[in-house]
Design brief:
alpha+beta, Alpha-Beta Plaits, two-stranded antiparallel ribbon, Fe-S_cluster_ET, iron-sulfur, electron transport
Length: about 110
C-alpha cells in the first residue's frame, strides 16, 4: 500500500501478537503459558472481553496478549480459552492448579 508522499508502508497484520508493556509480559506465573494461533484467530475479541488484563485488541484486527499471565488470572483465562469461537488459544498448565485444588477438596 502506498502512503501519501510515495512511502511504502506494510499492510497491518491480522491478529498479530504485539508486546504490550502494561500487560507486564513475563511477570506472571510460570506455570501457565498461552499461545494464540494467529492463523486461526479471526479477531472476535471474546478473550479480550473475558480476560482484559491478559488479552486486548489493538485496532480491529491485532490481538495483544500476555503469554505468561499471573496466577490470579487463571479463571478468567480459562473462560477466555473456552469462549474462543475458532479455538485459537492454547493454554498450557491451565488445569494444573484446578486439578490440585480439586484433589485437596476431595479429602
Amino acid at each position: 500500500m502506498l502512503a501519501s508522499g510515495g512511502d511504502r508502508r506494510p499492510e497491518p497484520a491480522r491478529a498479530s501478537r504485539v508486546a504490550r508493556p502494561d500487560l507486564a509480559v513475563g511477570k506472571g506465573g510460570a506455570s501457565m503459558r498461552l499461545v494464540v494461533d494467529l492463523n486461526k484467530c479471526q479477531g472476535y475479541a471474546q478473550c479480550a472481553f473475558l480476560a482484559p488484563d491478559v488479552f486486548a485488541m489493538h485496532g480491529e484486527e491485532s490481538l495483544l496478549y500476555d503469554p505468561r499471565p499471573e496466577e490470579e488470572q487463571r479463571e478468567r483465562v480459562a473462560r477466555a480459552v473456552a469462549a474462543c469461537p475458532v479455538r485459537a488459544i492454547t493454554a498450557d498448565g491451565l488445569d494444573r492448579a484446578g486439578a490440585s485444588q480439586g484433589a485437596s477438596d476431595a479429602r
